[in-house]
Amino acid sequence: MVSTSNSKLSPKSVLQLVEILQPIARATEDPARRLDLCNQIDEIFARLKPASTAVTSKNRALRAKIDIALQAQAVIRGDQEEEDSITPNVESVMRSGDCRVSDESMFEYDIDASSDQADVYNEGTVSQPFSSPPIPIQLSPLEFDLRAMKSQRLACYGQSIYIPPMAKSSLRAENDEFFPLFDKVQEFLESEREVMLILGDSGAGKSTFNQHLEHELWLNYSVGDRIPLFVNLPALERPEENLLAEQLQNFGFTGEHIRELRHSHQFILICDGYDEAQLTCNLHTTNLLNLFEQWSAKLVITCRTQYLGPDYRHRFAPNAINQYTGSAKDLFQEAVITPFSKDQIETYVERYISLEPRAWVGKDYMDSMAAIPNIMDLELLDAGFEWRGIQFQTDLAVAIYQEQDGRPVVQYMPRNDESTWKAEFFDSDPISTILREASLLSRTANQYRFVHRSILEYFYSCSIVHPEHGPVGPPSSVADHPLSRRSLINEPSIIQFLCERVQQIPSFRQELFAIIEQSKTDSEASQAAANAVTILFRSGCQLNHIDMQGIRIPGADLSGGELDSAKFQGADLTGVNFSRSWLRQADFRDANMSEVQFGEWPFLSVDKEPTVCVYSNDGSSGSSDRTVRLWSTSDGNSVLVLQGHTDSISSIAYAPDGQHIMSGSNDTTVRLWDASTGKSLAILTNHTDRVSAVAYASNGLHLVSASWDRTVRVWDSSLPHPQLSVLRGATKIITGLSVSPAGLSQVAACCIDKTVRLWDASLGLSDIFARGTAIDSSEHIGGVSTMAISSDGRQLATGGYDTTIRTCDASTGQSLGPALHAHKRSVAAVAFSPTAQVLASAGWDHTIHLWDTERHELNKIINGHLASITSLAFLPSGHLVSGSADWTVRLWDLGRDTQEAVHTFRGHTQGVRSVACSSDGSRIASASEDKTVRVWTLDAQLEQREVVFEGHSDAVTCVAFSPIEHHQMASASDDKSIRLWNLASDVESGPTVLLGHQAGLQCVSYSTCGQYLASGSDDNSVIVWSVSSGSKLEVVGDVFGGISSVVWKQDVLELIVGCKDGSIRAWRLLVEGEEDSAQVQLVWGTGFGNLVATKACIDGVVGLSSVAFKLLKQLGAAAEMSGGRVDVE
Q: Are 1115 and 578 a contacting pair, CB within 8 Å?
């Protein structure tokens, strides 16, 4: 009940209270309950202050709105006499000239232009002010409710400052392709499209824009227009089924009125917080919008970018007519809000400062606080208030997750909730009130929420670890630990907050490891341990060297994990996600592996080479004449010829909606065509060999192609960088391809190794998308072409076919800065100066670039070579040596301001592939396609003496000097051999020849101790050799692209391998016995695109499905140890 105190209320306060209670009273079906609410509203009206003597437009408008509320009260009561008694008050306001009436609208009131908000506006044609009393217009209850809703929504708009956001067309659109978001939405509303998705990061202004959009639509609303309806999705119980009806009920519309609106009106639904409501459904489809006898509406939906995976458009695009498995792309549109520019931020600040004068001094605040009972108990004048405010919000966040499963909106009704958990935060206690008002909460009527879901997630993470003070105090038992409350695996933002704390607070990292250790002996620690291991892994901690025997981590996410030689014996791994993980030599003996996810299926073995695998059919025809032809089935005539490929067409596929055609060709490209005009829409070029098969995913948005390069690639042609992921694992040429009707969750490819490979492409794609809405990821697109390591062993530089250079920490693989862009074509060589202050790069554009490694800035460009530059090396003096396809080797003095080389070494009769410098600076060696190695001996005056080494039967691809024995040199060749040369003048014996690779070699490198040699080949393997004996110590074959470069770290036995598939892997060499055998163990890696389980031990595992068991066996896992017992479900 409302207090019967004699204190009076301002008109504004009366309106605020009445606007909360009247919709509740209108929606209440219980007569007694409705009467009780009406009595409360009457008491509020009774406390209305007398009219001010200062007659202004604002005062008149407020009084007029109160008259409307009183008339609404009469309608709710069903009291016609009271309604009639209100009419003269309304008429008196109308006579004042501030109310105008037209034939198409009800009475509405103007607000003085200087007032804070334009509360009420005229809809129809405005007539002149009345000079005599008009005839009162009687409104139907539905019309009254619609106009009351308009008034309420306009009055609720409180944005004193609004900066229009800019947007771009998609997540991967270029950053200079901006447009005003409001204009794009207006264009959408005037089009035939039905759904527009607006994406943006946390804090991008999505909700603010939605509120402004609704406000503008109401301002321009005329009778017969679509009705704008702002929908706070998290506040609804069932938005996936009852979106409009539930929202209209919240505005107080009766069931009869809702049914009438459904059949006679059209809407614009502005749906805010798709991500905060944790929805996954297609609201357009599940609410049956725009179907016969259903709601007619356009949808504007906003969502956090991070919430969606790559295959998200099917959640929003309307279904095509008569097509239940696809979506109608022509009915769907999207935009991505871009960060505010510096000018926009400055404009905001200027408007904020000038918003209103701020003349209060300290005494004013103190006087106001003294007038509020108990406020001083909050200790506002010391640090205690700040702490209590943070604790209040942290406790509320925890309660929302515990009591509402993370649903962010809390509805608080004092009479119903005074004995529930909500009262602790939302009752009228003065301390709770002040803490609540000081918190990052917003309120709409009786609904409270954090201003953004990211704030809720942040404060929940604070309950686990404080950003400044570290982990919360130790609980009495692990079951009471904050990480034991719930699984955080599907809460990526909370996981991200906690990952940052791992990197910042060492004690938190130690606590997570302690929880994992405790799970070995305490089953109650399993939930906390699953969260802990996921957080540690996502934060970049290496887990493969930890003893994880017996740990309990059910449901943990270790996808993409570097778990080489991990010890999981006896562990509870129920439901763990190992998709795309590196499980080489992992030990799973006696582990519980029920419901484990691997993201792949076993390949299917067949008797002969398969050429086609089909989930569903496609159409059209391709030809060896390099064209695609469309035929009429009625008369057999060719309708359209698609030309553009430069070699035979191998495969074609129609899009599910029939509007596009995709073709694959022996020219290594995939092309996308308009099926009606024959226009070429896109050319996809990342395959390195002929394309053998193409297919569409069922959503019509993703394209899939297979190639002789042994990869399957997933594309989105609408993006500037269309390749989304690469599926690897095929050991030989892929000849056929098919995508399941269920989508990318299963992709099948036929290989000439007599297998059909099966992938879950959606899992790999999701991880890439989450990392990469930023295109500038840590991986090269198209593969690593070259690598170099600094002399101190700290920095690793890589060059790629994508024209970029990247640097990372050689110990962890973590990026050290943004990619370096300057070359116009592929980068073929990189090299660090002896001091590591300069990084040199060179490539197919014939230029050398010199970079400052501290500032990541380009210092200088050197021209001089006449063809592609293939190799770089530094002398100890700081001079730079370059080799080129122009047959020359050039020596550069970087201290000279000139484009002229100090010396040009000539003698090769074909292109130079590699150059190297001895560690004492006395020799330069070059390897060439002319099958020779040439060594120039230098004296102090750089005079040269040339020696030619012959013996290779094919192009020599690489040359390297021993860092210890300056007279020892190794060369590698396309003839599959390595030759070890002794350059000592008194040694005339021939070279030692090392054989073992099955294809041409691309690189060779000495360890820094000079005892070992590593070689990489196009056979996808790295071999480690003993230099002294020439014996093969270890073969690393778990690589899925040709090896382009191998380097060794300084003073440790670690080699880093760069691959043409874009991946990089660092291995530690573990030498056994007297250097006659060795093992390698993965230290770190990037670009894991598929599951590896070579030599993984699964003996005695429990609960492993038969499908997973077969997959692991195919991947080389062992189950024959200790009797080979495996409990397979």
A: no
DSSP string, 520-580: TT-GGGHHHHHHHHHHHHHTT---TTSB-TT-B-TT-B-TT-B-TT-B-TT-B-TT-B-TT
Q: In this structure, what token pair is assigned to residue 997?
A: 């690779």
What HEC string does 278-315 produce?
Answer: CCCCCHHHHCCCCCCCCCEEEEEEEEEHHHCCCCCHHH
CA–CA separation, 931 and 948 (whole Å): 10
Asked if 994 and 977 count as a contact pair (C-beta separation under 8 A), the reply is yes
CA–CA separation, 517 and 715 (whole Å): 42
CA angle (320 as vertex; 314, 325 as ends), nearest 5: 55
Instruction: At 382, list the tokens.
Output: 């010391």
pLDDT digits over 813-837, tens only?
888 888 888 898 989 999 999 999 9
pTM value is 0.62
Q: Output phi, psi for 851, to 5 deg.
A: -115, 145
Q: Are 21 and 41 in contact (CB under 8 A)?
A: yes
Tell me the average pLDDT across 105-132. 33
**Widest CA span in the chain:** 124
Alpha-carbon dihedral angle through residues 314, 316, 319, 320, given to the nearest 10 degrees: -90
Place of tokens 């306001």: 93
Do residues 865 and 888 make contact, with C-beta atoms less than 8 angstroms apart? yes
DSSP 870-936: EEEEE-TTS-EEEEETTS-EEEE-TTSSSSS-SEEE---SS-EEEEEE-TTSSEEEEEETTS-EEEE
Q: Over 634-669, what HEC string results?
A: CCCCEEEEEECCCCCEEEEEECCCCCEEEEEECCCC
Which residues, 6 or more positions from 114, have their beta carbon under 8 angstroms from its beta carbon? none
In DSSP terms, which residues pair with 847 in a beta bridge? 863
Residue 1001: phi and psi, rounded to 5, are -90, 150
Q: CA Rg, the chain, in Å?
A: 36
d(CA 987, CA 981): 10
pLDDT: is 947 or 123 the higher one? 947
**In the chain, % of residues over pLDDT 90:** 28
CA distances 992 to 1, 320, 424, 903, 980, Å, are: 99, 69, 82, 32, 5
Under DSSP, the state recorded for 97 is: I
Q: How many CB atoms lie within 10 A of CB 839?
A: 24
Residue 955 φ then ψ, to 5°: -55, 140
Tell me, letter by letter, the H, E, C secondary structure of 838-874: EEEEEECCCEEEEEECCCCEEEEEEECCCCCEEEEEE
**Beta-ladder partners of 25:** none
The residues, ordered by sequence, that sit 6+ positions from 37 with a Cβ below 8 Å of its Cβ are 21, 24, 25, 28
- pLDDT digits over 713-726, tens only? 888 866 666 777 77
Closest-CA residue to 528 (of 474, 458, 597): 474
Q: Are 150 and 221 in contact (CB under 8 A)?
A: yes
Rounded distance, CA 868 to CA 951, Å?
Answer: 26
Instruction: Give strand ranges (E) for 13-169.
Output: 99-100, 108-109, 166-168
Q: Which residue has the tokens 């391809």?
A: 737
Measured torsion, CA atoms of residues 666, 672, 674, 678, in degrees rounded to the nearest 10: -30
**d(C-alpha 796, C-alpha 598), whole Å:** 31
Q: The tokens of 99 are what?
A: 């109310």
- Round to whole Å and give the CA distance between 406 and 548: 32
Question: Quick count: other Cβ atoms within 10 Å of Cβ 1113?
Answer: 15
How far is residue 677's CA from residue 654's CA, in Å, rounded to a whole number? Answer: 14
More confident residue, 85 or 832: 832
- How does the average pLDDT of the chain come out, rounded? 78
Q: What is the pLDDT of residue 16?
A: 64
The secondary element (H helix, E strand) that includes residue 963 is: none
